[in-house]
Amino acid sequence: MSFFKTGNTQSSTGDPFLDHVVSIQSDDYTTSYTSANSIRNSDVFTAVKIIASDIASSPLQLIKASMPQADDELIKLLNEKPNSEMDGWHFKFALVVNMLLNGNSFAEIKRQDNKISELHLLPNSSVTVKQADDGKVYYTVGDSKRRLNNQDILHFKYFSQDGLTGISPLYALRDEMKIQHAGNKTWFSFFSKGVNGSGILKVHKSDLDGKAKQAIREKFEEANSASNGDNALRTIILDETMDYQTLEINTDVLKLVNSSDWTTKQISKAFGIPSERLGVENAHSSSVQSNLMYIQNTLIHYFNVFVSEFDGKLKSDVAENFRFNTDRLLESDPDTMVKNILDQVKGSLITINEGRGKLGMPSLDGGDRLLTSLNYTYLDALEKYQFSEKEEKNGTRETIDGGS
Asked: Contact at 8 Å (CB) between 107 and 122?
């Protein structure tokens, strides 16, 4: 029997990164889970936060015959209240966070009278994935090794080598994050341990002890840089025994600080998000184009991970399928939003009241009918219209000829 374990039994390697990032042991297919210490990196934290919040903010829909099903109990369970302790937004958010950091995330499906009643988030450290000799996959949960069948647990994984367990994007970032960590230590050491005073005050022909130096420093600062700002930018007056010289920060270090976006780009690449969402400027695309590319090239893949699991284990009708509604993500700015709604109303896709509802405006009398242009009609109707016009013209000509 093969087994795929997610737990906290891994011993320390002495390397904090290796202790917190997914490690793969190919001989026994064991995968350890990732600690929250992994998100102490600001770029990783931001990437995970952006993806998780965008997925959690996109409502799920159940589609049947190309139409979303209104007031569906399962959809309300996923979007609003999956269980008595958690709301739908944080439920989806936590599932995405665990999947990105650990490679896997789990939720138990609770049923009552053969009907899904609740969904409960499971800690990665408590779940072990196992495969029986006949190939069937099952899960054991907690210290008691409570067994759950494959259909009783939602298991989300973005990148997988075997189709049964996932690998975190952090696994591909080990070297890049080590470089970033070393760079951060260099900056920290420079600004915390380097000689970074604003200036040097030389006292000639004197042998000063520590107390004397401290006293002169305090008197000089009191006279020339009072805390209330009264002496700021005023003329400095020194006698012949003193000489003051300003210090400049090493510009090479400042250049290093300002050009330190290589690891940020690598992290954004691994998570599949545009680098500008992590603060790296991109002069080649507008915010609207960037937002659309983000949905089409990034979120769609994460959406598919969740949709495929929901379709396989939650729905009862094969004619139904789940879908994420991305309308909120496409609302780049108010002007673009209003223009899109107007185009939808003019194109007979939505009614006036549906468009007003998207803008948070009240309904109007008569606004529930679809508008259309007189310049558009169906092809078969156009043929009938042309045929009737031709008959009408022929009839008029015959009348004129007969009258003459």
From this structure: yes
